[in-house]
Design a protein that fits this description.
This protein is mostly helical. The protein is built from 20 helices and no strands.
Length: 519
């Protein structure tokens, strides 16, 4: 919110001095509110990239707004291509993904500003939009850097932690599928919105974008669509009742908008429904500030939100859908790859151990993010599926729970390695155990990919464990270091035993429930 308020103050000054319209201020607030959230993950290179990308995108958004007003068909097409292209570039890695996110921010501001204003002549607003975006990036970078240095917010993981080796895709990568889904949803939203509600088509398009944006799978988009619809409906009703107390251009309404926006940012981490309700309330108050009667638009807004949500869900389910099970398998395999890296790295190389530990923890968190919607779907009544081995309560939730149980032992293992790397590296029992654990993790990864297990080592299977004690120990071995390491390795191996049957390729009968279909 400090980023938002600072950018808002600058935009107000520019509007007054340069004689711009108030929509330039709205665009600045929209960009700053989204930037304030996403910049928490930026490193130094990302901030430099933002200084180049966001001003250009803000200038383009201003020109696009004029194009949509003068030539609606051409403007709509450019909007669809711009958003879809920003999603498509995700195939080039995390840096490209963040650049694409920055490109989308000014485009969304085009949908937020109420229509009806005449097009702006000249390009003065375009230049100032780029300058305001640059100010937002610089001001946000100063605030975020200060907050990280003081410990107010956590530092983001390094690019070496978040960047994963991308497996080759046989046909089409997920980013391309998501781009096509977004293009289909936005195209349908523009067509339906402009024909049913010519003056308020933006509600349909904005909802379709929010439902499809960031949806990792069919299950994710289904839950997000439901939360978006319910939350937006609640926010619209509440804001309609409150906004009638203020008149057009009311300063009280502006203060209330920022208060609700702050609450939305806070509650977003708890549930997307809270975010949708608060943001919709902000938009209702904004429209009221522009003089549009909230009571007259209530039914139109609710209908537009419902139609946009249906379009977003339909596109994600029918246009090259991304199955939730495939996403979970990929994220689980990535976490197991980090675990195998922890076992195979040189334990005397402290930075390499820390990197492997951080990668494993980060990938488990990423798995938890994609399985969160399935917790809701698993809670829905599903007669006949509760006993199925493929029910999400068994497959989805148990996979992430099992890997989360490995995080503690991995942390304990990393602490023990840092304390006595030489003793643990030279211990034959520990060496044998970690090699078997790496082979066990590889076996589970191959099962996840529906590939045959590698030939077992002579004399034992990966799940067999040598005794924790016994045998001759090296002269310099520290028993205090070895015992907790063996215990941690045993706990991790036990969790892999739990995880392996979840990906058993043997065929099973599945129920046709909504939760199962979402996979």
């Amino acid at each position: 919110m400090a980023t938002v308020l600072g950018t808002y103050a600058w935009a107000l000054l520019v509007e007054h001095e340069a004689g711009l319209r108030v929509d330039s201020v709205v665009q600045a607030v929209v960009i700053a509110s989204a930037l304030g959230r996403v910049q928490r993950l930026f490193d130094r290179a990302d901030r430099l990239l933002a200084c180049a990308v966001l001003p250009c995108a803000a200038a383009g958004g201003t020109e696009l707004s004029t194009l949509i007003q003068r030539h609606p068909l051409a403007g709509d097409a450019v909007f669809v291509l711009g958003v879809a292209g920003a999603i498509w570039v995700r195939r080039f890695g995390a840096r490209a993904t963040r650049a694409g996110t920055l490109v989308v921010l000014p485009l969304i501001a085009v949908l937020v500003v109420p229509g009806g204003a005449p097009p702006v002549s000249g390009h003065t607003g375009t230049v100032w939009a780029a300058a305001t975006a640059l100010v937002a990036v610089a001001w946000g970078a100063v605030l975020t850097r200060t907050a990280q240095r003081t410990g107010l917010v956590a530092r983001p993981p390094s690019a070496r932690v978040t960047t994963a080796t991308r497996a080759p895709h046989r046909w089409m990568p997920p980013s391309s599928r998501m781009a096509l889904q977004m293009a289909a949803a936005l195209t349908a939203a523009f067509v339906i919105g402009r024909n049913l509600w010519p003056d308020h088509w933006a509600w349909v398009v904005l909802t379709a974008f929010l439902v499809c944006s960031g949806a990792r799978s069919r299950g994710d988009v289904l839950v997000k669509g439901a939360w978006r619809t319910l939350g937006a409906a609640a926010g619209t009703v509440v804001a309609t009742a409150v906004s009638g107390l203020f008149g057009p251009r009311s300063d009280t309404a502006v203060v209330l908008i920022f208060v609700v926006l702050a609450v939305a940012t806070w509650l977003r981490e708890l549930s997307y429904a809270y975010w949708a309700a608060c943001v919709t309330a902000v938009l209702s108050l904004l429209y009221d500030w522009f003089g549009q009667s909230p009571g007259d638009l209530l039914h139109t807004r609710l209908a537009g939100i419902a139609v946009g949500a249906v379009l977003g869900v339909t596109a994600s389910w029918l246009v090259l859908p991304i199955r939730t099970e495939a996403v979970i398998r990929a994220r689980t395999a990535a976490a197991l790859s980090g675990l195998g890296e922890m076992m195979e790295t040189d334990w005397r190389d402290a930075p390499a151990v820390r990197m492997a530990q951080a990668r494993f923890t980060y990938r488990v968190d990423q798995l938890a993010a994609v399985t969160a919607p399935m917790r809701i779907l698993a809670a829905l009544p599903a007669p006949g599926a509760l006993s199925s081995r493929r029910h999400p309560d068994h497959f989805t939730l148990r996979s992430v729970t099992t890997l989360r149980h490995c995080v503690g032992p991995v942390d304990e293992l990393a602490r023990a390695i840092r304390a006595a790397p030489d003793a643990l590296t030279s211990d034959p029992v520990v060496t044998q155990r970690r090699h078997r654990l790496a082979a066990h993790a590889l076996t589970v990864r191959r099962a996840i990919g529906r590939r045959p297990a590698p030939p077992a080592a002579a004399g034992a299977t990966p799940s067999e464990r040598p005794p924790t004690t016994g045998g001759a120990a090296p002269p310099n071995q520290s028993v205090l270091a070895t015992v907790p390491v063996l215990a941690a390795l045993d706990e991790i191996d036990t969790q892999l035993d739990v995880l392996s049957p979840l990906f058993d390729p043997s065929p099973v009968s599945t129920s046709g429930t909504t939760a199962a279909a979402a996979r």
